[in-house]
Design goal:
484 residues, 8 helices, eight-stranded antiparallel sheet, alpha+beta, Elongation Factor Tu (Ef-tu), domain 3, 12 strands, four-stranded antiparallel sheet, Helix Hairpins
Length: 484
């Protein structure tokens, strides 16, 4: 069997020889063998007869393949299947390249340090082996101080008790004075009634005396007239006339005196009827009435002192209530824990004495879940505070949680007391904090990993855009601090 490489070279030399040149017989035979082999191979692979002329040195091969419609359809189907396979296998990595995602992401939470509000003994410690939610009862941590100062409370209570005793004493004195006043009032009223009856009787007697004096005066006047007539006629002596005239004067004066005494008695009677006593041994009221007036004044003083004592007692009662509340706060305190969380670190135990402000425990605040993520520099430059993001846990069954970017710290360590420091993620030094809504994967699921997808409207910044400029644009807004 001839050598293939030698035969091919011979065939090439025969084909390349100029027209009319002499070719050795051996090379011409080799060229004919090669053409025969090419014709056989063409019939085997193409499945259609191909005619090659094998002749002398002037003859050339001229194959003409035959194209059929079935062959064209098969070729189109193969091309379509190839393109579909390329698209299906390359779409997933292409989508990952075009989507703005994080390099690393994990669920994080704030760590709150619970401190003792008072000095005392720890009576109960929370259950550190479980989470708690707002629907369930949170752990209780109670601090008791049996040596809390209650001197001020005792002093206020003693003052209140003293005022109560003073008020009771004043009330008893006022009651005694009121009873005595009532007795004196009754006595004065009886005296007034009696005095009024006496004066009525005196008025009646003096009225009778006045009538008698008037009768004597009238008789004396008639006697004086008769005597005057007899004296002018000479029948009566001068001495008789003088005696009759003196009797008339006496009767007239007695009548006037009786009238004045009657008027005096009426004035006294009218005054007694009005409650005013007129007499020689007293001014305007008897001693009983004067004593009653003194008692009324004293009772008024008692009532004023009682009102003052009650007002002070009311103020002291309010102060005692406030002091009791302060004493309760100083003597026992129930430490308030977040609505939802988990004990992250317990720093004390039951029976331990703690000081005011001493750290008791550190708990995770699971009511406001956060996601800490790090991204590449190109992704970081396209993000801004307030942008939208989506967190998808690695083991969350495909569920996505919407969130908002609340902090961008760049290459610096993220601020805040996180349970897991963001610097623990080392794939990229650019850190982002996202506030998500209601992450419930595994309860207070701090440390669970996932992926954050960011929604960006602008492309990445170029080197010219990132370079600092001497003049700021007019519509540039001031940087907004990230408030967590």
């Amino acid at each position: 069997m001839p050598n293939n490489a030698t035969d091919l070279d011979a065939a090439d030399r025969v084909s390349a020889a100029p027209f009319g040149a002499e070719v050795p017989q051996e090379e011409r035979a080799g060229a004919q063998d090669v053409r025969s082999l090419q014709a056989a191979l063409g019939r085997s692979f193409k499945g259609a007869p191909a005619e090659f002329e094998v002749g002398g040195p002037d003859t050339k091969a001229n194959p003409k393949p035959v194209r059929t419609p079935a062959r064209t359809v098969r070729r189109v189907v193969k091309i379509a299947l190839g393109l579909g396979l390329v698209i299906s296998l390359g779409w997933t990595p292409l989508k990952a390249i075009l989507t703005t995602t994080s390099a690393e992401a994990l669920i994080n939470a704030r760590v709150e340090t619970i401190r003792s509000p008072i000095e005392g003994i720890v009576e109960a410690a929370p259950d550190v082996d479980r989470d708690w939610t707002s629907a369930g009862e949170s752990p209780r941590l109670r601090i008791v101080d049996s040596l809390a100062d209650h001197g001020r409370l005792d002093d206020l209570k003693r003052q209140h008790e003293a005022l109560e005793a003073q008020s009771a004493t004043l009330q008893r004195k006022s009651a005694i004075a009121s009873a005595e006043l009532q007795a004196l009032t009754d006595q004065v009223e009886r005296f007034r009634q009696g005095r009024l009856r006496l004066l009525e009787a005196r008025v009646a007697a003096q009225s009778a005396e006045l009538e008698a004096a008037a009768a004597k005066s009238s008789d004396a006047a008639l006697s004086k007239e008769r005597t005057e007539k007899l004296r002018r006629s000479g029948s009566a002596t001068v001495a008789q006339g003088d005696r009759v005239r003196f009797e008339w004067v006496e009767a007239t004066s007695a009548e006037a005196a009786a009238a004045q005494r009657l008027e005096e008695t009426k004035v006294e009677r009218d005054a007694v009827a009005q409650g005013v006593f007129i007499g020689d041994s007293y001014n305007d009221s008897p001693s009983s009435d004067q004593r009653a007036a003194e008692l009324r004044l004293r009772i008024g003083e008692f009532d004023a002192e009682i009102a003052a004592a009650r007002s002070q007692m009311k103020l002291l009662a309010a102060q005692i209530a406030e002091e009791e509340a302060r004493y309760r706060d100083r003597s026992a305190a129930l430490v308030v824990l977040p609505a939802t969380g988990r004990v992250w670190e317990m720093l004390t135990g039951p029976g331990e004495h703690v000081s005011k402000g001493q750290d008791l425990m550190r708990v995770l605040d699971c009511s406001r879940p956060l996601v800490s993520a790090n991204v590449d520099e190109s992704v970081y430059n396209r993000l801004e505070v307030g942008g939208r993001a989506t967190f998808r846990p690695s083991q969350g069954g495909g569920r996505a949680y919407q969130g908002t970017i609340v902090n961008l710290t760049g290459a610096a360590a993220a601020s805040g007391n996180f349970a897991i420091p963001p610097v623990a993620m080392r794939k990229s030094p650019f850190y982002v904090t996202i506030a998500v809504n209601s992450v419930k994967e595994g309860g207070c699921s701090v440390g669970r990993t996932g992926t954050v997808t960011f929604e960006t409207s602008a492309g990445p910044s170029t080197s010219d855009e990132a370079a600092p400029s001497n003049s700021a644009p007019e519509d540039a807004s001031p940087l907004r601090p990230a408030l967590l």
